[in-house]
Amino acid sequence: RPRAADYELDVRAVLETAIEIYCAILLMENPFPTSSQEVDWAKKAWTLAAHHHNTKLAHDGGILKLITARSTHIRGQFKSRARPIVATTFGFETSADKGVQTRNRLLVSELKQDSAFIFRVRGSSVDEHSGLYTNPAIQQIINEVLFKNKSDDAVKWGKYYNPFPRVAFALVLTAIECAIDEWALGSRELISFKEDDYSGVFNSHLASLDEFSKAAGKLDLLKKLLEQVYSTG
Known about the structure:
Elements: H1 9-29, H2 35-52, H3 61-68, H4 70-90, H5 98-112, E1 119-121, E2 130-132, H6 136-146, H7 153-156, H8 158-161, H9 166-181, H10 195-216, H11 221-232
Antiparallel strand pairs: 1-2
């Protein structure tokens, strides 16, 4: 297995930048890429990174493997940050008590009904929910993954992340849904954030965002929301 430490310092500097750009491409295009997309985007990221460092260093197969390995890593970051934030935000409780477990199961059903978890305030029906796409868990997860400090990816690469990519936003919603699914049996069971299980959920959230954008017409509410997400980060 190739390691970054196997390469010279100048190559490692370009590699580090290429990985950051590759993650940005994933979050702008598709976080569940096909194998050919992974390779194409890794090559593109390397070219952009080499240009950024004002060098013409070539990549090899090992470098491409190191870059494409970040696909699983970036998805895992969103999922691992979502897990504790979801538990706290929505009030899931760890307990052997049957009553608590029943409440957890009911909460899963309630949150997943019409994607109630995407709203800031949940009413007794979808018509009574308010604050579409502004549940605080969404921004918290984004901040934890991409805005931890001034040298974090989204701050450093504003040209890719501002406004916040709608694809990345859909991935956050998918990570939240996966973290909610872990409580479906009443106590938390770890669920893998795999393409087979969650690419369909991701595509559904992305389609809903596009419908929201279309319904708003010239108001361009989705763009305003995504600009707000970036500025809040």
